[in-house]
Every structure is written in C-alpha cells, then in structure tokens.
What we know:
Helices cover 41% and strands 16% of the residues. By secondary structure, it is an alpha/beta fold. The model is unreliable at 1-18 (pLDDT under 50).
Amino acid sequence: MAAPRLAVAALLALATAGAGAAVTVVDDAGRRVTVQQPARRVISMAPHATELLFAAGGGARVVGAMNYSDYPEAAKTIPLVGSNSVIDMERVLALKPDLVVVWHSGNTARQIAQIESLGVPVFHSEPRRLAQVADNIERLGQLLGTGPAASSAAGALRGKLAGLEARYGGRSPVSVFYQIWDQPLYTLNDAQIASDAIRVCGGRNVFGGLKVVAPEVSLEAVLAADPEAIMAGKRYDPANPGLKLWEPYKSMTAVKRGNLLTVNGELLTRPGPRAVDGAALLCEALEGVRQRRPK
C-alpha cells in the first residue's frame, strides 16, 4: 500500500507546485509581465481594460477601475481610483493590487510611472487591431489563472472577426472620413482600432497614413479628399454641428449620396471585446454606401 500512497503524494505535490508556478506574458509594450501566482486583486486603468478583464473571466477580481468603466453592468459597481487626468494613489495603495492594467493612449506617462513605482506587476494593454483584442484576453487570462474562460472568449471573438473578413474583405473599397470631433476637426489614423474596423469592412480611411494617431485636419483637406462616406459618433452637445457640418457642401460625394453616417463611437474606438460588434455594424453601414452608388 505504501507505493500507491507515495504516488498519490507525488501527484499532489506536482499539482500544488503547478498551481503556484509563476506566469510570464509579454504585454503590448513588449515588456515581460510576471505574476508569482494568479492575480486576485486587479486594478483597471481604462474602460476597455475593464471589459477585457471581465471577458477573460476575471471580473470578480477587479477591485478598482477608472471613470467610464461602465460595461458590463457589474463594472459600474467597482470602486473608482481616478480619471484620465487624476489618480488617487492612496486609494490604489489601499486596494493592495497584485496586477494593474494600464493604457498608454489613455493614461499619462506620469500616471503610468506612478503605478510602476509601486513595484506591482503592470500590464500595458494597447490593442490597435481587432485581432489583438483576443490576444489581450488570452494573456490576461494567463495572469489571472482563468485560461479556459479566456481562451473560449478569445476564440469566439476570432470566429466573429473571421466571418466579417470573409464576407466584406473582398468588397469594393469605400473611402471613409471618420470625424471624431468637429470644432476643430479631428480624425484617426490607421494606428487606431476603429481604422482596422474600416479595413475589415472593405473601407479605406482617407487620412489613415498620417503620423499622428488623432490628427487635426482642415475642412479644405476633407473636401479635397472627397470621401464616399463620412461617419461620426452620436452628437451629445447640441452646440456642435456634428455631421450637419457637411450638409452645405452639396457637391461632396458623401453628401450627394446620403452617406453621412452616425456610428457607435464607443464600440468602434474602445479597444475591448465589443469592438468586433461595432465593426459588424459598420460593415452593414458601408454595405449601404455601396448600394447607394449610381447604377
């Protein structure tokens, strides 16, 4: 009987060792992030990171978040540690995180430096392509020890994305101007996830080649580009003209054909799991643009 007992003891020892083994992943900044055991207390420094953590199966472990972390519904009850301009470092310390997820495009360099000075593992999340959202979910799942749930969520996203690319990737191109602000005019280049959604749908961002991620452009530059479609998010301030800005320019292709499109800007620009759903809606809108072409 001694031999079987020894074998069982050995297996238990191996299982225990495996459960406590350190895990290392490479984040979107190219840095190695190591946790000595699955992260149990996580702070999310961006709304999209909160969504990623929930998708990875770690929503119950998020003990602090930034403002606008409003999805899924459970995220609204997470204590806030600050906004994109101010972090309450005392609250961060009090929450005793064993992992913090930051966003280079949303957190300032000073904020990130403050967080990194705590000596806590920091994961930089910066998906700029729809496919990278699934990659983020999987890597966060590794750090959380929720690999199966994360892999399942990532696989479902990849399946949706593959379906969109198969259906729309070969369609005739649509030139698009994405207006993210109107006074002054701001747009996005191809380094932002919304532009990848445009690409997946068979569109072409007319200012995609600019070097700045969110460049200011002139009205004259947009008129010269003459995009087939102009899209913008919902207008929340009645004082801002939004897409109505273009209505006087009757000779523009987008205006002539009725291609001034209101899109869900939160889905398209927030680089989280719902970005693929935003892309699906955009693909349908661009298909309507193709259907309105002169016969």
